Amino acid sequence: MTSPRSALATTSARCVRTPLLRAGAGLLAVAALALTAAPAHAVTTSSTGWHPVSGTDRTFRADNGIALTYHYYADGVDWDRPAGAVFYFDGDGTARAEQPEGRFATRLAEVAAETNRAFVFVEAPNGTRSWRAGDTAATAAAVRQFATTNITPTTDAGVLMAGYSGGAEFLSRHLLREGMDWLPAGSGAAFIGGGGTYGQPIAEATAATDDLDLTWVVGNRDGAYASGSGAWSALHAAAQAETEFREAGYDQAQRITTAGAHTDYDIPAIVADRLAELGK
Fold first, then answer.
1. Rounded to whole angstroms, how far apart are CA atoms 186 and 178?
2. In the chain, what are the domain boundaries?
3. For residues 44 and 40, what is the distance between their CA atoms, to the nearest angstrom?
4. What is the CATH number of domain 10-278?
5. Beta carbons within 8 Å of 58's beta carbon, 6+ residues apart
6. Which comes out higher in pLDDT, residue 131 or 27?
7. How do residues 148-199 score in pLDDT, each as one tens digit?
8. Signal peptide location in the record (predicted)?
9. How far is it, in rounded angstroms, from Cα 139 to Cα 122?
10. 67: which DSSP letter?
11. Rounded to 5 degrees, what are φ and ψ at 137?
12. What is the C-alpha to C-alpha distance for residues 92 and 98, in angstroms, rounded to an integer?
């Protein structure tokens, strides 16, 4: 990951968010018109150069035209020390990303700050609440560009990519499956309640990626689950993916089974546990 050199690609959108904002297509259109774009602010506070200040409802526009809305939390991060970031991708159909000041988001921000990392809550593209919507390959390319050029000025502490359910599936099937050389040393990924590969080819690990911490966390009762595409099992998806990533040379790939079903995960606690492992 390279240090960001320009804030031109990132804009801050100022609006008042409510959970009801995206109840239908008409409201989506109104919400889009209500956003007032303003230049992103960056401040020089340390020897590492500039970094974005905390802010919600920001938009990153990738070179391929994909626009990503995200919330950025940097309070408590000391940029004069080894720092990093946590990028989080929530489950399909969830609305927590639309509540950036809610307890879920702020708990994750606190967990990240405890290890001197910024927290980046990335919304599913185009207000869809689904990481399966649209051109997923283009979305993955946009996220990679976003992560590597606009957020973290120093990566000495490594980066954690974390996703739940549909967000975990996006990580395993699209963002990371074709290679992870773009992640800095000391990084990892947490696939929570999902993260399958379904027979898709996985890029072979390299000397730079074979020791990345890849962890699938799945509940012992997270079995047959009704999804938009039929019955789906996070247990089966996690077991299959762990095996296939290990066969591709990712020596640190592992699966942790917890107690509970698909909606029982304490995601901030899981992220805190994975960050503690990255620090070892």
1. 19
2. 10-278
3. 13
4. 3.40.50.1820
5. 10, 11, 12, 13, 40, 52, 69, 70, 71, 72
6. 131
7. 876 555 557 889 999 999 999 999 999 999 999 999 888 999 999 999 999 8
8. 1-42
9. 12
10. E
11. -65, -40
12. 13
Nearest alpha carbon to residue 69 among 126, 150, 153, 6: 126
How far out from the chain centre does Cα 74 lie?
15
**Contact status, residue 222 vs residue 193, Cβ threshold 8 Å:** yes
Q: Is the pLDDT of residue 52 over 90?
A: no
Amino acid type, 132: R
Q: What percent of the chain has pLDDT over 70?
A: 77
DSSP string, 225-268: EEETTEEEEHHHHHHHHHHHHHHTT-TT-EEEEESS-TT---HH
Q: What is the DSSP string of 92-110?
A: TT--GGG-TTSHHHHHHHH
Q: What is the Cα–Cα distance from 7 to 245, expressed in whole angstroms?
A: 35
6 pLDDT more than 60: no
Q: Which of 224, 225, 221, 232 is nearest to 260 (CA)?
A: 221
Closest CA to 37 of 62, 69, 65: 69
Decide if pLDDT at 36 tops 70: no
Structural tokens at position 92: 């399909």
